[in-house]
Amino acid sequence: MSNIVVGISDWKICKNPEVLVTYALGSCVGSCLYDKVTGIAGLSHIMLPDSTSAEGKTVNRMKFADTALPDMLAEMIKMGADKRRIQAKIAGGALMFATRSEQFNIGERNVAAVKKALSALRIPIIASDTGLNYGRTVFFQSADGKVVIKSTVKGVNIL
């Protein structure tokens, strides 16, 4: 079986036993939502924290934490997931370029926005691997909800 690739500013949903993968999370955040009873899994590759900065433009809702996560959750529920059972694991949000300005630390802002969006949806975050200064690739296994994070700096981390 091949992996289902989630691109930048994208999300996908699958069922057990499929695997979702997103590559090269730098300042972006990979948000993994999982219902362990149904084996329904969703992975979002969030690029920016907030869709309000894109007012008046054609907006890719999958790009932003405040729109991607509610949309992905709604589709998971349509597939049969129960919102009361869904839990989250998140990864990414690195500071990829040295800067003294918080305004330019998009990774930190993305992590905060993902946490805020999940809190508003009442989805608990049960594990995370965020921040620092290196990229990550995320493999999300719908069979058991395991998130395997690979990086050249830290090797393999399992959430």
Helix and strand composition category: alpha+beta
Q: Give the distance, in angstroms, between the N- and C-terminal Cα atoms.
A: 22 Å
Helix coverage percent: 10-25%
Classify the oligomer.
single chain
Number of strands: 10
The total count of helices amounts to: 2
Q: What would you call the shape?
A: globular
Strand order, biggest sheet? 1-3-8-9-10
CATH class: Alpha Beta
The average pLDDT value, as a whole number, equals: 91
Relative strand content: 35-45%
Rounded to an integer in angstroms, the radius of gyration calculated over CA atoms is: 15 Å
Encode the helix/strand succession as letters: EEEEEHEHEEEE
Q: List low-pLDDT spans.
A: none
